[in-house]
Amino acid sequence: MRFVSRQKHIVYTVRRSDYKVDGGVKQIVHGLRAEFRNHQFDSEFEQQRMQWSDSDREAVEAYLMQHPRFGKQLWLDDVKGKKRAKAAAKADRTIEPDAPITRCIATVAVQGESQLCGQPVVGTTDLCADHQKVAAAVAAEE
After folding, report:
1. What is the separation of C-alpha 67 from the centre of its chain, rounded to a whole number of angstroms?
2. Cα-to-chain-centroid distance, residue 29
3. pTM for this prediction
4. Is the pLDDT at 136 greater than 70, yes or no?
5. Is the pLDDT of residue 28 over 60?
6. Alpha carbon of 64 to those of 16, 31, 86: distances in Å?
7. Which of 14, 81, 84, 86 allows an S-S link to 63, with CB 3.0 to 4.6 Å?
8. Cα torsion for 59, 14, 31, 48, to the nearest 10°?
9. What is the DSSP string of 40-72?
């Protein structure tokens, strides 16, 4: 399945990486992440690239389709990929009253994993106070 996001580059962590001990040997168990690039994520392509099983791919797809942003800032691609991605990029950034975003959508790196900030948003934006400052500084540089 191909998904499209309003954010150009965003990562959804479905399952975090972890370690397991097998026969006294510590092994890493790789997590599952949906990494959007240029507003797009193709689960079948990523399955081949990351050597996921069918159940891993299905878990990622189910996670994205059940995510609170699905249908608001995250969609299934129902049109030719680039056309839908361009529409998503230009989509209205205001928050619909029936679907308020209450947590910051900025991604942060935590122990090598990208995760959503999760701090309470300020005003009618989808960012917390700290990330609003960062966004303003970046905008001022442009």
Report:
1. 10
2. 21
3. 0.52
4. yes
5. yes
6. 15, 15, 20
7. 14
8. 50
9. EEEHHHHHHHHT--HHHHHHHHHHHHHSTTBTT
